[in-house]
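re the bet — no i am not wrong, look at it urself. input seq straight from the record:
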Amino acid sequence: MDYKEIQNLIKLINNSNLAEFKMKDGDFRLTIRTKEYQKFINAPAQAAAPVVVSPPPVAVQQEPQVQNTAAAPAQAAPEKSEAKEVKKELLEIKSPIVGTFYRASGPDKEPYVKIGDNIDVGTVVCIVEAMKLFNEIESEVKGKIVDVLVEDATPVEYDQVLFLVDPKG
């Protein structure tokens, strides 16, 4: 990232409501904190909790699977604990930057990876567009793609989980 790009990024962040922005690109790391950051840090814990804690979107998708019988609560608990155990074994591919997530290099192109694909370290899995720059995101893990957690052409945050990977796959 050159000096001009960093200046443009600072201007963009100052015009937003962001409190903090972090970016990592190889050995290059950038952290920008705005006036909002101090307000966030000094805010009472009750005010900060709703902003920090948010339910994962996966849990919403699992809810309809629960049966409406009297025995359902007893059966649902083991299923949820099994799902958590499976999730603990999965590796995450996270977004290293804030931007717009794209699964393919163009609207008429095939996605870089699909559910069921085996990937190696260094495999390009998606693109994140930030400030008109298209950044190829490479996998830092090896395994099988088991879930894509972000819809194509939607905004993503820094450190947001994009893919779940089974290392045993």
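see?? The chain has five helices and ten strands. told u. also Confidence is low (pLDDT under 50) at residues 45-66, 68-73. so pay up
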